[in-house]
Specification:
This protein is of the alpha+beta class and about 350 residues long. Helix content is about 35%, strand content about 25%. The protein has 11 helices and 14 strands. The chain has helices at about 5-20, 30-45, 75, 100-105, 135-150, 155-165, 185-195, 205-210, 230-240, 265-270, 285, and strands spanning about 50-55, 70-75, 90-95, 110-115, 130-135, 175-180, 195-200, 220-225, 245-250, 280-285, 295-300, 310, 315-325, 330-339. The strands form 2 sheets. Strands 1, 2, 3, 4, 11, 12, 13 and 14 form an 8-stranded mixed beta sheet that branches. A 6-stranded mixed beta sheet has the order 7-6-8-5-9-10, sandwiched between helices. The chain is globular, with a radius of gyration of 19 Å. The two termini are about 35 Å apart.
Length: about 350
Amino acid sequence: MDRNLALEFVRVTEAAAIAAARFVGRGDKNAADQAAVEEMRARFNQIDFCAEVVIGEGEKDEAPMLYTGERFCMHERNGGTVCAPENLFDIAVDPLECTDSVAYGRYNALTVIVVGQHGKLLKAPDLYMNKAAVGPKARKVFEEKLYGVVIGAVSVREFLVGLAATLGKDVSEITVVLLERPRHETLMREIRSAGARVRTLTDGDVAGAIAPSLEDSGIDCLLGIGASTEAVLAAGGIRTLGGSMAAVFSAGGGSASGGKPFEKEQIERLNSYGIIDTEKVYFTEDLAGGDYVTFTATGVIDGPLLSGVKFGQNKITTHSVVMRAKSSTVRYITSEHAY
């Protein structure tokens, strides 16, 4: 378990990012996603490790590869015995986070891999979660307010005033990032009413959730409702950087507390994954726990975490980050690929 697989996975995210970047601005998000999926899956076959996908491209009948529950193991593939649980990793992937951004040439797109010990990454259906994330300076003294704001027990104003005091700032100096969605209209008004500034993302909140943990990002917190898959992926990076996230499953309503009640089908999906308490708040280590967590990502289009793929005359340049929670190591890697 001491192998730094994240350094091997960076070749996987680089290849997937390059494949997706060829479709920037072409208006075909499905083609971009398919190219990234196929490249990522092919590159996984070249790595000697055993893993089960817990966050992937959907259920088996929805995705031909990288589906939730898929296993890949060079040892098993070569006729060996089935891997013991202690030798099996959990893996969460998003071969192309922000497919719309790539299709329409917008800001912010990544290809991401998070790896953890077996049973330590949250395995959950692709539903909404209401999320809040802050950086290391606010982590220890602020988790109670993170809990409160995602369940609606703490107002957005109280949350932002407390965050400003913790960071030694005025509320007017606080910048909140959230997804640009109709469901966030009320939340955006509450942030502005409190006096804070707003940055919006058209798609994908993995980078947005990690940004508060990056000292020079200019982002102080993430708020709002996004996909549960992105919560697990972001938690992998937040673990290493020392920030904190809280998230609770949401039916996808428009208020800070999650809005409308769950539909019967949503509850059944949660229950099928063993999630009975639909009001449970998940913190960073609930989403990506254990002693071994790695986060690997490559930028497809420039965003708050990474620069995107650049096509030169005779080379392609990629920008990646490799994080390992056990050693709190963060490596930024710029690679040049001849073609």
